[in-house]
Design a protein that fits this description.
single chain; about 475 residues; 16 helices
Length: about 475
Amino acid sequence: MSKKKYWEADKRHWMHPWTHFESFQEEGSLIMSRAKGSRVWDSGSKSYFDAVGGLWCTNIGLGREEMAETIAEQVRQLAYANPFVDMANEPAIKLAARLAELAPGDINRVFFSCGGSTAIDTAFRLVHFYQNCRGKREKKHIIARRGGYHGSTYAAMSITGKAGDKIPEFDYIQDTIHHLSCPNFYRAPEGLDEQQFCDLLVDEFQQKIDELGADRIAAFFAEPILGSGGVIVPPADYNRRMWELCRANDILFVADEVVTAFGRVGHWFASEDMFGIQPDIITCAKGLTSGYQPLGATLFSDRIYDVISTGDPDRYFASGYTYSGHPVACAAALKNIEILERENLLQRVVEVGAYFEERLQTLRDLPLVGDVRGKRFMMCVENVRNKATRELFPDSLNIGKWISDRAEQQGLIVRPIVHLNVMSPPLTMDHQEVDFVVEKLGQAIEQTHRDLIAEGHLSSRTKALAG
């Protein structure tokens, strides 16, 4: 098929996740044809540095021959195995044991699924299963945060608090899922310092517990660092204080580490190493295989397993997937962990990530840039109409897309999310590549500013304010 034929067939047949119907019908897709390391090539052979890392996931970079050989060999030996009840396969067993070694505390149990959304869905069902097994059938309510993203299955999207994804044409669980304020200090009420803002957030959680009753709240779902909701690093002691409230009120703490696990911020898991908390459940995916195979995992404590596995001799966990513990996906995950460890990529993220943070901060002086935030290889630029008041452009303008389009012209892929441009590059990124990303993104922002003025989206007054 020619490049044009691919483009036409894509428009005609493939409905993409998050398709915006009008613009897709007009513009179609940017079609990728190959990749190596941090570089991807489109069907017209143009090269780009992928600062999005696929979707937070290509941690070891793409096109690795040893990964291809591992996957091929597993296909030859055992391409699929039934995972139900009392059937198993060696790669899944090895991976479960390895994840138990890497996970903090008594998190020694692993339930495999197909990705981040299904890992969250499994956690949601596991939480209710556990509470019911304890005889606490009133503990059904789930607490999450506005701005949090947890996936696109029915339960996962219901738990998600990102307003832009909760469109009215879909239905959601609303009676037992509640959302607290987003811990985004850039958008904190005026006059509060970071500690006061943290106090406000913790007090809000306590008030919600008092309102619903601790005996009715099953779990708190939280990303240690919010990802798609804007790369929000909460105030310093926020995560620990929220976890302590959970412990004091018999509420399970579910850490959604689909993005942060496997090196994204320099640790196997961020919960304990970065924030000093011991979750009851951790969900992961993405960097678990670096995108080479679809795989998710819900990790949970021995404490939970001991409750659900005892009591009723006829009890069984009636949930699972055809591809749970898929041998090829698990073999890829084991090789991925081996590469991360052998090449010391977690330490690389700590070192190069500090430079990435420092260099991106230089963009604050540019017009349109209101905030630069994140941690290590998980960063975000928030674009605003007015830097002084933090006023946003209309959502309909989609300013992040304006900037990402101009970045692509410069050979750089960054992710647009309405007002934001998000970056989550492969963990192999070096200092020279950091400089490239910052330079090209800066040029794209400056070009966007000029284009906004030329097309009348910034008046003479707002031009000055934006600058």
